[in-house]
Write a structure and sequence with these properties.
The protein has helices spanning 16-42, 48-71, 109-113, 137-156; strands at 11-12, 73-76, 80-85, 91-96, 100-106, 116-123, 130-136. By secondary structure, the protein is α+β, with helices and mostly antiparallel strands. The strands form two sheets. It has a four-stranded antiparallel beta sheet. Strands 5-6-7 form a three-stranded antiparallel beta sheet. The chain has two domains: 16-68; 73-156, Pleckstrin-homology domain (PH domain)/Phosphotyrosine-binding domain (PTB) (PH-domain like), CATH 2.30.29. The protein is elongated, with a radius of gyration of 20 Å. The two termini are 32 Å apart. It has four helices and seven strands; from the N terminus they run E-H-H-E-E-E-E-H-E-E-H.
Amino acid sequence: MTWYEPDADWTYADRKLITARCIVLWAVMVFIMADFVVFSFVFASPWIIGTFVTLALGLWFTWLIFRSVTAHAWAEREDDLIVKRGRMFRSVTVVPYGRMQFVEVSAGPLARAFGLATIQLHTASPSSDASLSGVRAADAETLRDRMTSRGEARLAGL
């Protein structure tokens, strides 16, 4: 048996999240590389090496973004929600519906442009909070309402 629930019906993060995160990453990387190029011409020094180091780091971070987004998934079960993430450092979070206090849906401007949202699950314990990134915006509201109604039903039984 594996370290997570193998029989669960996993929903993976939308692949558009890779593009959205890479846009932010490369906006920063291009700015840093431009600084190195300007410094190398102004000060006539070997700052251009920093450009190539930044490029290599950008490619490495792009690969890490791809790996982390493709590993992020969640599964709805009858009594709880399972969230898994990570390839090398794997983590599985199980959030019982009865412990949820509220469910928050958020989306920044770039996420909205790609039709994505993030769902943050808040519980009584700050250490057991979980988030679902890369949820399609059309599905986020439905998922939030479904988790909220399940949480209210489980809480009523206490």
